[in-house]
Specification:
Length: about 375
């Protein structure tokens, strides 16, 4: 398989239409007494839309994105977009090992960009230049510039696509994998399906086992599962509608950029480690870059497909490759017991609970996470 260069290019017509739609936004009133009590706060949304119209410079963001080496490949007859950034190492050092970084929902390849320089050119950050990696950052199938597969979008199907990218397209014989959220689940599947080629996996959201039947739940496991179920009662509405009525909500979000922003920003605020202020964790230019990419590509609906097709997922085999976890501090992962991850992974080498950084940790805590990735994957080098 081969790949070709790719450039992001949003037409003037699309941008003009976007601004016109934003200018015509009809804002709702707040349902509760407190901001964000009932979802995306109308006052915050109004301010964000105003900045999107008059302050946000998409062309500058687009130029910065296009300074990176974007590529596209045909895998299974479908286009996959990815970044491929070679590592910078001393001439006498071995070739940099490859590492694939996979995003989740409602995210994009943009989430991983703060990690790229830190991992490909560690000398710029005061780290050992011999610890550089070749970094690959895909857009998962159905997101932005990557097409959906012909069949159901299962976690295993995504893993097969990414493995083909790393081995058949890029020619790597062995590689490491990192991910969060859906990308983390896919990372777990890579380790389970390809233990001979996957050197190790690293996630910020530890995996559940295919079954809890092997032995009784510990008190810590039961307490966590109960807390997660209680949290889902307040947070799970988004996934319920995306999994059962995706075309209904997609019609609204595909037509209204302010609605799209509200849908995404609600989760960015809830899931980041922000102490009540979203932009403490992620600045608005980064937020609007991802939202604009969703808008310009018209892929919010296709990003729902992995929710729609969830029932097609089979049980994942045990993960036997070396595994590391830097656990997110978001509410759904508070007090996540290592016992659960040990049911899914037979060789956990590193477990860290840093107490900072949420669902989008590569954006929120890039120095912390790059250090954890570097420490784990360099430990797997042959001695």
């Amino acid at each position: 398989m081969t790949f070709s260069p790719f450039r992001i290019g949003v037409s003037d017509e699309v941008l003009a239409d976007l601004r016109a739609r934003l200018a015509q936004t009809r804002f709702t009133t707040r349902s509760g007494d407190q901001p964000w009590q009932a979802g995306a706060d109308p006052d915050y949304l109004r301010d964000l839309v105003s900045y999107w119209i008059d302050g946000f410079d998409w062309r500058a963001q687009e130029a910065d994105l296009n300074a990176l080496p974007h590529r596209q490949a045909q895998i299974g007859g479908r286009r996959l977009h990815f970044l491929h950034v070679p590592g910078t190492r001393p001439a006498d050092a071995p070739a940099p090992p490859p590492l694939i970084l996979s995003h989740g929902w409602p995210s994009s390849f943009v989430e991983m960009l703060p990690l790229v320089d830190r991992l490909t050119n560690p000398a710029q950050y005061g780290e050992d230049p011999a610890d550089a990696f070749d970094v690959v950052v895909p857009s998962l199938p159905g997101f932005l510039y990557s097409e959906l597969p012909n069949g159901p979008l299962t976690r295993a199907a995504m893993a097969r696509t990414l493995h083909a990218l790393m081995t058949d397209v890029l020619g790597y014989q062995r590689y490491g994998a990192f991910g969060g959220d859906i990308g983390g689940v896919v990372t777990g599947w890579l380790g389970a399906l390809y233990p001979e080629q996957v050197a190790g996996i690293h996630m910020i959201h530890p995996p559940f086992p295919a079954s809890f039947d092997s032995h009784p739940l510990s008190p810590a496991e039961q307490a966590y599962l109960d807390a997660e179920a209680a949290y889902d009662e307040t947070d799970g509405g988004y996934s319920a509608i995306m999994g059962t009525r995706p075309d209904t909500i997609a019609a609204a979000l595909h037509d209204s950029p302010a609605g799209l922003a509200a849908w995404l920003v609600d989760k960015y605020r809830d899931w980041t480690d922000n102490r009540g202020d979203l932009e403490r964790s992620i600045d608005r230019d980064t937020l609007l870059t991802t939202i604009t990419l969703y808008w310009a590509t018209g892929t919010i609906g296709s990003s729902f497909r992995q929710y729609v097709d969830f029932g097609h997922n089979g049980p994942r085999p045990a993960i036997t490759v070396p595994a590391a976890f830097t656990v997110s501090t978001e509410p759904s992962h508070a007090n996540f017991p290592r016992d659960i991850a040990e049911r899914a992974c037979t060789d956990i080498r590193h477990w860290s609970e840093p107490g900072r950084g949420g669902h989008f940790m590569p954006l929120e805590q890039p120095d912390l996470l790059a250090g954890e990735l570097r420490q784990f994957f360099t430990s797997l080098r042959p001695r």
